[in-house]
Amino acid sequence: LGPLVGAIDQGTSSTRFLVFNAVTAELLSHHQVEIKQEFPREGWVEQDPKEILDSVYECVERTCEKMKELNIDIANIRAIGVTNQRETTVVWDRTTGEPLYNAIVWLDLRTQSTVEHLLKRIPGKNKTFSKFKTGLPLSTYFSAVKLRWLLDNVEEIKKAVEDGRAMFGTIDSWLIWVCICGTNGGIHCTDVTNASRTMLFNIHSLEWDPDLCKFFEIPMEILPNVRSSSEIYGLMKICPSRESGALTGVPISGCLGDQHAALVGQMCFQDGQAKNTYGTGCFLLCNTGQKSVFSEHGLITTIAYKMGKDKPAFYALEGSVAIAGAVVRWLRDNLGIVKSSQEVGEYGA
Questions:
Q1: Sign of CA dihedral 330, 331, 335, 339
Q2: What is the rounded distance in angstroms from the CA atom of residue 265 to the CA atom of residue 267?
Q3: Are 63 and 25 contacting, i.e. CB atoms less than 8 angstroms apart?
Q4: CATH 3.20.20.30 fits 4-267, yes or no
Q5: What pLDDT score does 244 carry?
Q6: Where are the domains of the chain?
Q7: Chain center to CA of 288
Q8: Inter-axis angle of helices 171-180 and 49-69, nearest 10
Q9: Which of 174, 254, 282, 305 could make a disulfide contact with 81, Cβ separation 3.0–4.6 Å?
């Protein structure tokens, strides 16, 4: 079969692990697990970071079991990539490895008052004050305001920051840190695509922006190191809690936010090529090449990918719709109109 590659796809509604032939791109095996969402109050959306992590381990182990049943040698898996739901915010303790609060999901709206408070500090209450640095407007959507809310409202996180124990990351950072070595030397990193969704990252210098960190009052020492989307971050380790170690020693060597990964997966490498993806939400991304283009019509500017340490960053324009496939789960779990997601297709027809 030749070399194989594995992909951890940690989405908002589910986690998947997929194994492909690295030469032909043929999908050889995969496993998928649905993820719970918690709604503590109206407009609040949370997930348990440990459940997310467990779902990754379960998907990896089950996929490897399926491959053995197909007589495919898992030793041929040479590299693993990570793609993840973007903007979802986790803070954890570097000494214990435990999350200090649930993950606040990108859909969450609790930070509306945080946004309003921050706007009062901006001349003219200009929501696009950081647009030309970050590509983003001030919004409940992005990670900086979620992190600000956690720092303002969760005593345990405040204390961990004071003690130098707190680590912030989007889901990719949390997974890579734990899957590589966790408290025994885990790598605290993210890639440029995920960093570009925080409102703390300068998309031109490709570095955390000190002025924005100061504006949001976020200590820079809790932020992950920013790397390219394609390099070796570290090697997978055994997970003692699940005796999960099928891919121990395999390098994690790719990381992209899910919509950026879809742009790459659809091979939109030319300026002007675009993809539209229907998942939990709906996202249209258009490659603008090595030039950052700024929209006057509500699109956001984001980093599309950076394929190696010494490679240039490519940019994209993005249009986002928060609810697409998520309505299917709502019809099933909230209204009870259907018993399974598959039934929606019959009604749609």
A1: negative
A2: 5
A3: no
A4: no
A5: 56
A6: 4-267
A7: 22
A8: 60
A9: 254
